[in-house]
């Protein structure tokens, strides 16, 4: 495991999202409110780094986790945290995408996709990921999505980019470096307007879609997987 890489990742994440640790606590509270006291299986998309595992594993001994990530190096970090916390018997880590889950994998009681969607450029591929996540969830299961969002051409996003840059200035980054990060770094990720993200969730089969988190460039949504039996489907007004 590359400990230096892990440290850089942890530090940068907390600068980029000052409420980073609080976010995982909020998601845990949501899952706890939705899941029974019995054993619950949680699917973690983008598990590299292991922060979901370290945030939710120790305090929820009845939960099991399946984590998927395309970065082998980041999964090594997640495995190291899992071993340190004594969670190995409750965690399965898979190198690849959600499509690499075993074909006989049962559906899950809950799922998270935190800081992944904005790294997928193609809108259809975003939709495919969300649909596949939905297909691996039990009817009514809670799902949490956290992603960068915004209309690239809007003044609103430009204002939030200015605030995001200020996070890094306050963390000691030089103004020239921050400008470079904005112009050639963060703007390379795939931003979608909030309503379009919510539309993708709805099109993927999720319902009760509610925005619960905003910090800087990032937003979070909670929702439920609607089933073919109608579970979790809101009635039309």
From TrEMBL:
Q: Name one GO molecular function term.
A: methyltransferase activity
Fetch the PANTHER family from UniProt.
Answer: TRANS-ACONITATE 2-METHYLTRANSFERASE, TRANS-ACONITATE 2-METHYLTRANSFERASE-RELATED
Q: Where is the Methyltransferase type domain?
A: 43-142
Species of the source: Paenibacillus plantarum
Record keywords: Glycoprotein included? no
Q: Does the keyword tRNA-binding apply?
A: no
Protein name according to UniProt: Methyltransferase domain-containing protein
Pfam families linked to this entry = Methyltransf_12 (PF08242)
Keywords of the record, alphabetical order, are:
Methyltransferase, Transferase
The organism's lineage is: Bacteria, Bacillati, Bacillota, Bacilli, Bacillales
Tell me the leader sequence span.
none
Any Gene Ontology biological process: methylation
């Amino acid at each position: 495991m590359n400990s230096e890489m892990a440290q850089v990742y942890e530090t940068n994440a907390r600068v980029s999202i000052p409420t980073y640790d609080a976010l995982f606590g909020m998601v845990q509270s949501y899952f706890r409110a939705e899941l029974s006291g019995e054993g619950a299986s949680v699917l973690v998309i983008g598990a590299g780094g292991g922060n979901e595992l370290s945030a939710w594993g120790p305090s929820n001994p009845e939960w099991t986790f399946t984590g998927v990530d395309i970065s082998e190096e980041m999964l090594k970090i997640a495995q190291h945290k899992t071993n340190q916390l004594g969670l190995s018997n409750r965690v399965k880590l898979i190198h690849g995408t959600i499509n690499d889950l075993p074909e006989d994998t049962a559906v899950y009681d809950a799922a998270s996709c935190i800081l992944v969607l904005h790294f997928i450029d193609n809108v259809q591929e975003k939709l495919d990921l969300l649909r596949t996540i939905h297909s691996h969830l039990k009817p009514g299961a809670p799902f949490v999505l956290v992603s960068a969002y915004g209309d690239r051409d809007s003044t609103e996003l430009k204002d939030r980019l200015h605030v995001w840059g200020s996070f890094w200035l306050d963390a000691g980054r030089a103004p020239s470096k921050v400008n470079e990060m904005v112009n050639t770094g963060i703007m390379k990720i795939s931003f979608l307007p909030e309503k379009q993200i919510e539309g993708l969730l709805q099109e993927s089969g999720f319902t009760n879609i509610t925005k619960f988190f905003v910090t800087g460039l990032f937003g979070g949504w909670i929702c439920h997987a609607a089933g073919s039996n109608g579970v979790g489907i809101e009635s039309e007004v």
